[in-house]
UniProtKB/TrEMBL annotation:
PANTHER family the UniProt entry points to: ACYLPYRUVASE
Domain Fumarylacetoacetase-like C-terminal: 96-299
GO terms assigned for molecular function: hydrolase activity; metal ion binding
Record-annotated membrane-spanning stretches: none
Keywords in alphabetical order: Hydrolase, Metal-binding
Protein name: Fumarylacetoacetate hydrolase family protein
Organism in which the protein naturally occurs: Corynebacterium glucuronolyticum
Pfam family, one: FAA_hydrolase
Length: 304
């Protein structure tokens, strides 16, 4: 099942939102379609609010069943057709956004590093993420070295604390897509990466959360810049699997419904290319993940 957060018709802000069951299939290329059919979940603001309900799966079953047994005219009024631009981050304000670095074997090799013994982790603030099809506005002082990092993101579905990998895996509600946009010049100012990873509304996140039962393993991850492929990896290349990451982090602090973990990026980032490449004004970065759909953000550079 695909669960998203949508902007309600007639509003231009994220203040009027609702969680929704996504009914549309992906297009033939595995991308998010331009028009999306959704079934709103009444009284639930976003996916995190839904996951906080102990019986959220039962609630979804009730909503879906109700839409099927009503009259055809009522069902047409219940199901909405929205533009993909009205899809918001599935979790609007994650309490935790944990990111894992150097977690794909080929990416580690291109960066000239050894395989890590433990996950390399850092954090983003919730307002570092951008809607899956929103423009990203970059301050003039941060335009010099913007890089793409297409990633598979975990969404936690239940409290997980001090858990082994089996229990940790059960705590994963589903997966989404993130572009861990990185300002390399800021990242490399110190040994701490946070300042290069948390620019305001810079990292596309979405287009929705796909529940684990529909994902499987070995998901392909492709990043394109202006339609040109830059990254092509597979989650089978992860050094630390989603279950391993969740278990590891749960021994540091509890993970709660709606927490998000970006699992790392495959090889092909601009910084590691020769010559180096970067995102420039008007460039569109698209990330496609097998079975999950796609996100696409166009970067707009502010003038000083």
């Amino acid at each position: 099942m695909k669960l998203g957060t949508i902007r309600m018709a007639g509003t231009d802000t994220e203040e009027h939102t609702t969680c929704a069951i996504i009914l549309s299939d992906l297009d033939e290329a595995g991308r998010t379609p331009g028009t999306v059919q959704v079934l709103p979940v009444p009284g639930v603001r976003d996916v995190a609010s839904l996951l906080a309900m102990p019986t959220w799966r039962d609630s979804l079953t009730s909503v879906y069943s109700a839409s099927r047994i009503t009259s055809h005219s009522a069902a047409r009024n219940t199901v909405l057709h929205i533009r993909r631009e009205d899809l918001l981050c599935p979790v609007l304000e994650p309490r935790k956004i944990i990111c894992v670095g150097v977690n794909y074997r080929r990416h580690i090799e291109e960066m000239g590093r050894e395989l890590p013994a433990y996950p390399t982790v850092f954090t983003k603030f919730f307002d570092a993420v951008a809607a899956p099809f929103a423009d990203v506005s970059v301050p003039s002082y941060a335009t010099g070295s913007i890089d793409w990092e297409g990633e598979l993101a975990i969404v936690i579905g239940r409290r997980v604390y001090q858990a082994d990998e089996n229990v940790a895996e059960e705590g994963i509600a589903g997966f989404a897509i993130m572009n861990d946009t990185t300002m390399r010049d800021y990242q490399n100012r110190t040994v701490q990466w946070h300042q290069g990873k948390s620019f305001y509304r810079s990292s596309g996140f979405g287009p929705w959360m796909t529940t684990t039962d529909e994902c499987g393993s070995g998901l392909s991850i492709t990043t394109l810049v202006n339609g040109v492929e830059k990254q092509c990896g597979n989650s089978a290349d992860l050094v630390f699997s989603p279950a391993t990451i969740v278990s590891y982090m749960s021994h540091i602090y509890p993970l709660n419904p709606g927490d998000v973990i970006a699992t790392g990026t495959p090889s092909g980032v601009g910084f590691a290319r020769s010559p180096k490449e970067r995102v420039t004004d008007g460039d569109t970065v698209e990330v496609i993940v097998d079975k999950l759909g796609s996100i696409s953000n166009t970067f707009r550079m502010q003038r000083s």
